[in-house]
Design a protein that fits this description.
heterotetramer, A: Ubiquitin-like (UB roll), 2 helices, B: about 140 residues, 5-stranded antiparallel sheet
């Protein structure tokens, strides 16, 4: 199963700094769908992106169990 | 020991140290942008800020900013330091320093760096008020 | 003792000192421009520079830059320090620091300040080469 | 008689840091004429301005013996 890292408001929405999915996701689009379905608060954010192995990923990017996956809510550094 | 050009740290950032990292004999200009924690936002008093980073990816994205700035301007050297953790009023979340042969290039590269950092680098800021808190930019 | 906001000095300028003069709780951005002595100009190796100022008038013109910047942007504080005398490669002829609520204002005010300084402030720079010297901009 | 301060290349053209005029000048225009006539090198400069009491002066600005007058060759600070 895939485990995703959570940051910022994503951590608060889920209630933890990592989340292990309870059903498989094939790609980034499915992961976003999974997150928005289980945690409706994600749908209210200005944006929601997924990083795969430290790089911003497209919806079609395939997710493997060994990838490092992170949920990237709207950034606000600086 | 000199700090790296791209750095995320829980310690206070000292602008002079970042400036010294980019000083170079071939440069005629050195531009610096320093973000500072304001005492208010949208007319609301700020108590403190909390910064959180996806550090490994943030370092990569900060390095990309330097690489892309180099493609666009004759950058002699650029350093980007960002702080994480709890920051009080007047503390410095970010310091960017860039040296270039001429000053116009430096202004352009420095502005590009901070504008892009705020768009692409996975760092998050939470504003703490007396009566609540919010993750900046999270909601429309 | 803190130095004045507008300052002409024969001593090395320390950027951190100028930065600290303009830090303010109401500011969210701090922009700095540092002029540095390049090792070459128009492909000619520079040995050193000599700066001379009409000091009393230069101070007045530097203060005018701050006053006019304040009319155009919400400047929280601005400091302009210029060095005179002999400067070697890597030395800092000028440091300008400006704090503003937001960063775009700071970039604009800082660029205005250095651009205007080079046009109006009675300070003169002589470049010393291995085989000669010249007052910069004196001749067409 | 009026004494003028000299800076930068103006100091080298005249050969001193002050110059006391040997004939009266009524205004800035006359002073510039005086300088260019006695020291032709001034005519070769990119610009030549006069400051009266620490302020840039126009050609018509009247010069008094008590004024502080300075010759301002092209500036190049920063």
């Amino acid at each position: 199963m895939v485990t995703v890292k959570l940051f910022g408001i994503a951590k608060e929405i889920v209630g933890g700094s990592t989340l292990t999915l309870d059903s498989p996701v094939a790609n980034v689009e499915e992961l976003l769908h999974y997150l928005r379905e289980r945690y409706p608060e994600f749908a209210k954010l200005t944006s929601l992106l997924i990083a795969v192995n430290d790089e911003y990923a497209r919806p079609a990017t395939v997710i493997h169990d060994t990838d490092e996956i992170a949920v990237i809510p709207p950034v606000s550094g600086g | 020991m000199a700090k790296p050009l791209v750095h995320i740290t829980a310690e206070p950032i000292i602008p002079q140290e970042v400036i010294d990292l980019v000083r170079a004999d071939a440069a005629g200009a050195l531009n610096v942008f320093i973000g500072t924690v304001r005492n208010s936002t949208q007319n609301k008093a700020v108590v403190k800020l909390v910064f959180e980073a996806y550090e490994r990816m943030a370092i990569k994205e900060m390095q990309k900013i330097i690489d892309r700035a180099r493609e666009r301007w004759p950058v002699t050297a650029m350093a980007i330091h960002h702080r994480v953790g709890e920051l009080g009023i007047g503390d410095l979340p970010v310091v960017i320093a860039v040296s270039t042969p001429h000053r116009q290039q430096g202004f352009a590269a420095c502005q590009y760096a901070i504008d892009t950092l705020k768009e692409t680098v996975p760092i998050w800021k939470k504003e703490i008020f007396a009566d609540g808190e919010q993750w900046v930019s999270a909601h429309p």
